[in-house]
Each structure stands twice: as structure tokens, then as C-alpha cells.
Design brief:
Blueprint lengths: L5 H14 L16 E5 L2 E4 L4 E4 L2 H4 L8 H11 L13 H13 L4 E7 L2 H18 L7 E5 L8 H4 L20 E3 L12 H14 L3 E6 L3 E2 L5 E2 L2 H14 L2 E5 L13 H5 L5 E4 L11 E6 H8 L16 H15 L9 H16 L8 E7 L2 E6 L5 H10 L2 E2 L6 E4 L7 H17 L1
Parallel strand pairs: 3-15, 5-6, 5-7, 7-10, 10-11
Antiparallel strand pairs: 1-2, 2-3, 4-12, 8-9, 11-12, 13-14, 14-16
Helix pairs in contact: 3-11, 4-11, 5-10, 7-8, 12-14, 13-14
């Protein structure tokens, strides 16, 4: 890897300040970004040689770490054959094999796969599936969706409309986005006793709006960017029952929760249910490139295909990109492969991370300003009783040798699954230090 000199970085960072818009930020960035020149394993190399353990898995996707030899080989091997070809009227082996693999791994009944560019796009496709299905079933008036407050489903317009319209990141667009129906946020805690009043609330809400609803949309057992909020699988089971009772589809957004992050392969597995439509993304390629998918049942696929238009009305230019599909196949193989064979072995890795995070984050409970500490699978969260001072919290984590990205009132981590025990211990120390500083 050619190093960029300090002089180069002086000019480049000046250009970054003038021209580059970073996520959820102003121009110029409120907190100057740190320049990264390389990454290997679970560590990022900054300009100047300093290394930081990546406690974010690059926004939850780099589950196998960086420069993994199996994933590198998948990319270079596919590149020697073809980098891309349109999926309209053509097909290719990586796309077919990936669809087969996703069907094998996903909850029972999901037999059909639409390969997308990104997680947000997979949500857009899933919304279209639900609306087209209801229209084909003779229920064209079912054009609204039921979502949960505290949820987050992406940054495109259809996905934004499903995010919490009051406390969410997209409330600026209220009045422009479609107005959907929102249930209260589920009571917190995967193991918390079931709240009968909440069950009555969702029962009544679905019954009142069933005539206009196409689907119920949920992040199974863990709401991600809307607050890192875990909830009991019992509520997911009741929503499945309500969808069946009222002729609605259940749409499970597993973009953040899929592929082992919560301690089960999919969040739906905690509840023992299968949705009608499921979306995946983020960790699908191990963080190497953008790819997502929307899966559905045969009932949904046949309904759409036999309805008005005779097709699902979507078709991304980079749909089923062969490079991304080949990498995703290698990433899914690594998930199951034993560590002694160079794999990630998530069933061993995720519980070990969960235990280490529970121990390592426990001291945060004694800090002033901490409202809650919670851990689920390979997710650790310290919630403050005030907005995080992002600059101070980030600096404190970096002082511990850890990269974190706090937001709102949360300092959290989603480590790569390949972290060694001492890596997780250092990440936990970084979270505690960031919470103390923020």
C-alpha cells in the first residue's frame, strides 16, 4: 500500500473541508474526520501510523475484519472473470448461488430473492412488494404501512417514511413523506416480562387500521439506529399472529440484525417466526462492497407476478453485481466455518463477545450521567441522560486505542466477530471512557 505523505494529507484534508459531505453532518464537518490509510484484521491505520481497534465494524458490516484472505481472494477471482454485467435478460453463477444460499439460511418459506444495491434500496423493494401484493389480491386501498416508533429503516424516501416521525432522524421531512401508522415503541428488554397492555395496544391499532394497511414493518428484537433498543420476542410473535389474522404481510428489516449480530442468525429466530418479506444488507458482503437483498415467500411472489403489470416494478442498474455476489458467498461461508479453518464461526464468537461486553461495560453503570447499560449479542450500549459530546467522547475512545462513532445519547459498539478477547476488553474500555467524557 502506498502511503500518503503528511504533506499530501494537508492538501487533501483542506479539500475534504471544502468539498466533501460526510454522513449526517454539515459542510464543513463539525468534527474533522480522521484520515485512514489502511486496515487489517480489526484495526484501522491512521495517517502517521497510529492504529485503532474498530469498535463499529464500519457501521456494523465488517464482521470478518479487514483484508481477510478469503474475501480478498473472492474479489480478485471474480474480477478475473467479470466485474459487472446487467441482470436484465442475463444471469450469472454468483447471483444464482447467492440466492440459493440466502434461501437456505433464512427463515422457512422465503424462497425468492431480489438482489439490491443497498439496505435502503432493499426496503424500497420490500415496500413495493407489499403494495403490489395487496393490489394484486384485490385490496388496492391497502396503501399504508404500520411501523414502530423508535425504528430506523434507511435514508431513501420510502424507508424514511417508516422511521419514527417524531423522535427519528427524518422528522425534518414530516409533511412530505407518506403518513404511515405507528405503534408505540415496545417495552425495553429481550428478557423483560411481557407487557399485556402493550399487546392490547398493538392488537387495537392493527384492528383499527387493517383495512388500509398492506404490511407491518419491524426490526426484529433490536431497533438499531433509532436507539439500540432491544425488545422481547413475544411482541414479534404477536405481530405475526395479527398479520395472519388481518391479511397483512410481515416485513422484517434484518439489515442490522441479520447474520448473527443479536446472537441468533436472524432476529426473527429469537421468536421462532418467519416473515413474508425479509431484507438483509450490511454484513452480507463482510463490509467489502454494497449489496442487499429482499426475500419473500412464494405466495407473495406469485401474487405480484400474477397481478397488474405481471412483474415487480424495480430493477437497479447494479442489481446482482457479480463482484459483490461472489464476495457475499465467501462471507456467508466464513460465518459458518470453524475458526481453526480460518473462519469466523459466529455461533462461538458472538456469545464470547456478549459475555466480554457485559463484564467490560459494567463499570459504566456507576458513571454520573449514565441512564442505562445494555448488551445483546455482539452489541454493547451505554445510554446517557444527555446528548453525547461527540468530539470529547471520540477523543476519549481514541486515547484508549479504539474507534467509536457515538450519536444522540448513545455510546455503543458492534465489534467485528473476529475480535480476540483482549480486543473486546479494549473496546469496552473505550466505550466506558467515551461515556465518562461525553
Amino acid at each position: 500500500m502506498r502511503r500518503v505523505t503528511a504533506t499530501d494529507w494537508t492538501a487533501l484534508l483542506a479539500a475534504d473541508t471544502r468539498h466533501v459531505w460526510h454522513p449526517y453532518g454539515p459542510i464543513p464537518a463539525a468534527v474533522p474526520p480522521r484520515p485512514v490509510v489502511g486496515a487489517r484484521g480489526v484495526r484501522l491505520e491512521l495517517d502517521g501510523g497510529r492504529e485503532l481497534i474498530d469498535g463499529m465494524s464500519s457501521w456494523w458490516c465488517a464482521i470478518h475484519g479487514y483484508r481477510h484472505p478469503v474475501l480478498d481472494a473472492a474479489v480478485t477471482g471474480q474480477l478475473g472473470r467479470m466485474a459487472h454485467v446487467m441482470f436484465g435478460g442475463l444471469t450469472h453463477e454468483p447471483g444464482i448461488r447467492l440466492a440459493q444460499r440466502l434461501v437456505e439460511l433464512s427463515p422457512a418459506g422465503l424462497e425468492h430473492v431480489f438482489l439490491c444495491d443497498s439496505g435502503s434500496v432493499s426496503i424500497e423493494v420490500a415496500i413495493k412488494m407489499a403494495l403490489q401484493f395487496q393490489r394484486a389480491a384485490g385490496r388496492p386501498g391497502r396503501t399504508r404501512l404500520l411501523s414502530l416508533r423508535g425504528g430506523y429503516h434507511g435514508d431513501t424516501f420510502g424507508a424514511m417514511a417508516l422511521c419514527d416521525p417524531v423522535g427519528g432522524m427524518h422528522q425534518l421531512f414530516t409533511g412530505v413523506l407518506p403518513a404511515h401508522v405507528f405503534a408505540d415503541r415496545p417495552p425495553r428488554g429481550v428478557d423483560a416480562p411481557v407487557d399485556e397492555a402493550y399487546l392490547a395496544h398493538i392488537d387495537a391499532l392493527v384492528a383499527r387500521h387493517a383495512h388500509e394497511l398492506a404490511a407491518v414493518v419491524v426490526e426484529p428484537v433490536l431497533q438499531g439506529a433509532g436507539g439500540m433498543h432491544p425488545y422481547a420476542p413475544a411482541y414479534l410473535r404477536r405481530l405475526r399472529e395479527l398479520c395472519d389474522e388481518h391479511g397483512l404481510l410481515l416485513l422484517a428489516d434484518e439489515i442490522a440484525t441479520g447474520f448473527g449480530r443479536t446472537g441468533a442468525l436472524f432476529g426473527c429466530d429469537h421468536a421462532g417466526i418467519a416473515p413474508d418479506i425479509l431484507t438483509v444488507g450490511k454484513a452480507l458482503t463482510g463490509g467489502y462492497m454494497t449489496l442487499a437483498a429482499a426475500l419473500c415467500t412464494t405466495r407473495v411472489a406469485e401474487g405480484i407476478s400474477g397481478g397488474e403489470g405481471g412483474a415487480l416494478m424495480h430493477g437497479p442498474t447494479f442489481m446482482a453485481n457479480p463482484l459483490a455476489c461472489a464476495t457475499a458467498l465467501a462471507s456467508l461461508d466464513l460465518l459458518e466455518r470453524p475458526a481453526r479453518e480460518g473462519g469466523t464461526e459466529w455461533r462461538r464468537a458472538v456469545p464470547a463477545i456478549e459475555t466480554a461486553l457485559r463484564d467490560g461495560l459494567a463499570p459504566a453503570r456507576e458513571l454520573p450521567g449514565v441512564a442505562d447499560v445494555r448488551v445483546l449479542g455482539a452489541v454493547g450500549v451505554v445510554q446517557l441522560d444527555h446528548p453525547v459530546d461527540v468530539a470529547a467522547a471520540t477523543a476519549a475512545a481514541i486515547a484508549q486505542g479504539v474507534w467509536l462513532r457515538p450519536f444522540r445519547d448513545l455510546v455503543y459498539t458492534m465489534p467485528p466477530y473476529v475480535c480476540e478477547p483482549y480486543d473486546v476488553d479494549r473496546i469496552a474500555a473505550g466505550v466506558v471512557a467515551a461515556a465518562a467524557a461525553g
